[in-house]
Give the backbone structure.
Amino acid sequence: QSNVTIYGIVDTGFIKKSGHDVEMGENVNNRLGFRGVEDLGSGMKATFELEHRFDLNNGTQKGKTAAGKDREFDGAANVGLKGDAWGAVRLGRVNELTTETIRKFDPFYQYGVGAMLEGNQRSPRIDNTIRYDSPNWSGFHFGASYSLGGNTDSESIDGYMVDVKDAGADNDGYGIMLGYDNGPLALVGNWSRLADSKDSSVWNLGAAYRFGPAKVELVYQQTKDKGWANGEQADWQKVGSWNNGRVVNEYQGVDELKEKQWLLGLEWKLGPGRLNASAQWMEVEASGGQHVSDKDIYKYAIGYTYDLSKRTAIYGNVAYTDYDDKEVAAVYGDTDDGTYGVQVGITHKF
Amino acid sequence: QSNVTIYGIVDTGFIKKSGHDVEMGENVNNRLGFRGVEDLGSGMKATFELEHRFDLNNGTQKGKTAAGKDREFDGAANVGLKGDAWGAVRLGRVNELTTETIRKFDPFYQYGVGAMLEGNQRSPRIDNTIRYDSPNWSGFHFGASYSLGGNTDSESIDGYMVDVKDAGADNDGYGIMLGYDNGPLALVGNWSRLADSKDSSVWNLGAAYRFGPAKVELVYQQTKDKGWANGEQADWQKVGSWNNGRVVNEYQGVDELKEKQWLLGLEWKLGPGRLNASAQWMEVEASGGQHVSDKDIYKYAIGYTYDLSKRTAIYGNVAYTDYDDKEVAAVYGDTDDGTYGVQVGITHKF
Amino acid sequence: QSNVTIYGIVDTGFIKKSGHDVEMGENVNNRLGFRGVEDLGSGMKATFELEHRFDLNNGTQKGKTAAGKDREFDGAANVGLKGDAWGAVRLGRVNELTTETIRKFDPFYQYGVGAMLEGNQRSPRIDNTIRYDSPNWSGFHFGASYSLGGNTDSESIDGYMVDVKDAGADNDGYGIMLGYDNGPLALVGNWSRLADSKDSSVWNLGAAYRFGPAKVELVYQQTKDKGWANGEQADWQKVGSWNNGRVVNEYQGVDELKEKQWLLGLEWKLGPGRLNASAQWMEVEASGGQHVSDKDIYKYAIGYTYDLSKRTAIYGNVAYTDYDDKEVAAVYGDTDDGTYGVQVGITHKF
């Protein structure tokens, strides 16, 4: 028992979005985890993490593999070794470096209605990965990861990989991160490619400056999305694909989307809580197909989190997203060219 | 770790029912849960519950949403706030008030072969719910709940809600409970409507009187079942529906079943355990369709639970159910117009 | 909390097998479990076990019932009573006796690339079972189990049992084990029949002798496989069955496979770890169909496990399997008549 720590987050509330009824939904992602550290002596440790992710409102698991299997431990499933001198290596399902590090520069941490626009190549956790994290040298640190793609050996090819291979979308994944965080300044830069993504890629830069109770953040991210990620084809590229009963194949025939996005953020400790605000602009360029065009997306969000204790808070967030048209809104899961979102709720950590 | 309490129940044994081979099965429902309470000061607390439900005999999860997803936490998944002065509010998946409170007036607690006849609108736990429970004032207490139905906005309608909406079965859910429990007397009254149930409803009254080692209980419950509950159509109403290889569509074309039921119960502390007994009568009225008719169901059950400790017990239960005919037996999951059930087993709480 | 012990194993690494890309995979099976013991007094105890099994590399559950349900607790789900004088009885999902006891005579414990050739009737855990284990009398001990098959009552037959019954494959399961383990010598003998296996059966004998840092092991096992186990038909017998995109129905029309296998094993405490090695021979006789024939399989394996602590180890294993031809290799999940396997990885227990 003493070898295992149980931890988690429960969060829910009410969300009203354009084109949706009032629904219950989360801000911070719900989770229940088990982790432990064993001291091996000589500055060495063994570590593990196993983390359920779920929808609190109906008790269902979150996450599914490309092969269609539910993920029991969507949040983390890994074992590793850690050395004071050389850093940490983990094997299994881990946080993806690009998402893990850049979301710290979004005041909404990529959660809830106010979240940073999520590129189509975002994958917060990745499978079949070996990940290295360096120690922290006066604020400098770096990380790297390598992910195996699905098995494509013709003698034993994984069922779902037949389509992936036919589409030329089978590739291993990579990630590299360089960071600095010391005193008032934090900086990060990432480059990554998801496994079985047809060589899609993401790179980004984040910068934050703290002064008094405030923090100002700036993010630039560029995504080259070829319509595949982790062995699954994007809805926007599928022929006659459906989302909640509506056909969303307006991008049929398009080979690649290029997303360039800027985010300016503010976190401000105000009273017994924190005011968060952000302004974003994303440019989406489609190439291939009949619908080649550039589209713009603007998003503005503001919210306040009121701390009842260190572990429990209530929050309210509001956001408005201005899409060029419904066609591009559909790619990002929205139904209207002007989409608002409002949410109130409670977060409890344990 | 200190923030989380792990608890649960494991129960299994052997069950022989008419029309079935001997099978392994439970009495008290199997569960493994995680819960916690955080003291926020000033008489306020934050709470959470996450509870797996499963079949002990093969290790599989129990529960599925109308959308077909397995429930990881079928038993509970909620977060809440609690005040000494004003009661408790919980958000997420919670116990349904009508089931939670009336089952206390069934000596078999609606478990196992001796259980109270379960109306077709019974749903022990409900999703997407905000539930309030009052403090206890000298035995008086009340509760209320509000449940959101599935999303039916035409822009983003949930896949499974298309059929529900076409059937006019989309509605939000409500529940209200008034209770008194003090000294020898306990009383409860409920009214509830499940979400996406075509405005079906249930109301009931329960009364119990304790004297010496015995408790006598009386329940009246009335259910108006329009063939839908929690976004799912009842088997009895489906065209050509199947249950375990047999067509059970005798009620095809029937619009509504009205169930009126009485239960008289006895719990008697006898020796190192407890004798339980009950007698029931349910009248089922079908309206609409060609098969309009009234049917009667009588059920008699007796059992003994022998306590090995406060946490562990062995039990034996016997029940006989007399249905008017096989047609109505099928609606309640039985195959014969006279159905007996016998079970022996073990329950362990942790 | 004090009533529950959390335990588990996390293990992963890299595996390269003939006909497969490099993949991440386990040696010791990954698990997360909850168990407890309650002292009932007079030498009596109540016990329970609930154990998740999963793939660490993508966080998905392992195990599926014949009815197609995922197993939340694939590793164990049972409740029991234990008496100092008379032994232990458990009910639910438990370890199958034949597998549990014979794997102790395989230096690789039937894990990873070096594992003992697993007969087609191997089922490490079984459902709907009552299992008895005797106390240990100076090294002598025995066990027995009885498993209920699926429900075949014509009034309520389980959906998946229709095919099982039509094939005449419905039967209850049995197991019996006799063992001795004292001083340098360990012996075991088993006979078992899985439920719904068309009366297939397995028997085996194991012997081990310890001297100094070494242990030498010998196993003989004979399997009569009629193409069914736990209500599921074997791939080798299915008409036009597929495995990872390849038809593997070469054994179509064959009624029964008879497997006779020998294993000679060595475990040697060498330096800070353990050297494991084994040599095996299996003879497969097919009867019925056009492809009646005898096939031979030879397998050689060697590995070293280096202990970083009592709970954490790294390992490397190599094995080579020589099949008579590809046809018989397919029955055992391999693609080549000469199949090698190499793996390195890490195991952490908690």
Q: What stands out?
A: The domain at 5-349 of chain B is CATH 2.40.160.10 (Porin).
